[in-house]
Amino acid sequence: MKNRLIAPSVLSADFGNLQRDIEMINESQADWFHVDVMDGRFVPNISFGFPVLKAIKKHAKKFIDVHLMIVEPEKYVAEFIKEGADLVSVHYEACTHLHRTIHHIKDLGAKAGVVLNPSTPISVLEDIIADVDLVLLMSVNPGFGGQKFIENTYKKVKQTKELIARHDSKALIQIDGGVNLDNAKKLFAAGADVLVAGNAVFSAEDPSKTIEYLKID
């Protein structure tokens, strides 16, 4: 995995033309597919589960990054990995036994990430940062697409970068929520490695060109 990665969020794709949008991502300069799974309990929305991931995997030619916005994620990680997830991220706020869940994901052969909501401080990662492959910072409150970017995210990116360095961790920093052409460069400059982009890509007149612009330094 390399820095300055773009992960279009499939949640914002056209589900009537899902294969078309997956093939667009395959042919674009995007690096990952980002798949948001919501259960209507941890967040006030329901998205999709195993059958949709299986359909994405059938056509996707790139790394599949699954973000579980669900309660008791430990019950489902094995199935998501079986159906094609290369990386599974779980919320700190939803995971009672975070260390156990992170290592369960890794034991199953996938990369493991931990997610923080906007109001959760970086300090809670002190004892897990060396074990994770990715830290996902939510830059909106999870549950819906199209929300306004929370400006405090820049500070949290820098704090996360410092924590990673202090513990000699290899974790990447991912940002999800309100990412667009106006803030992508600044997020990369602050230390982010992976940007999730949903509406910014799929509502664009030329999604592939927008992905290219998001990567430009």
N to C succession of SSEs? EHEHEHEHEEHEHEHH
Approximate helicity band: 25-40%
- Residue runs with pLDDT of under 50 for 5 or more positions: none
CATH class designation: Alpha Beta
Q: Assess the beta-strand content as a share of residues.
A: 15-25%
Structural class: alpha/beta
Number of helices: 8
Count of discrete domains: 1
CATH fold node name: TIM Barrel
Radius of gyration: 16 Å
CATH superfamily: Aldolase class I
Considering the chains and any ligands shown, give keywords for the structure.
217 residues; alpha/beta; TIM Barrel; 8-stranded parallel beta sheet; 8 strands
What does this structure look like?
The chain has 217 residues and is of the alpha/beta class. The chain has one domain: Alpha-Beta Barrel (TIM Barrel). It has 8 helices and 8 strands; from the N terminus they run βαβαβαβαββαβαβαα. Strands 1-8-7-6-5-4-3-2 form an 8-stranded parallel beta sheet. The radius of gyration is 16 Å and the shape is globular.
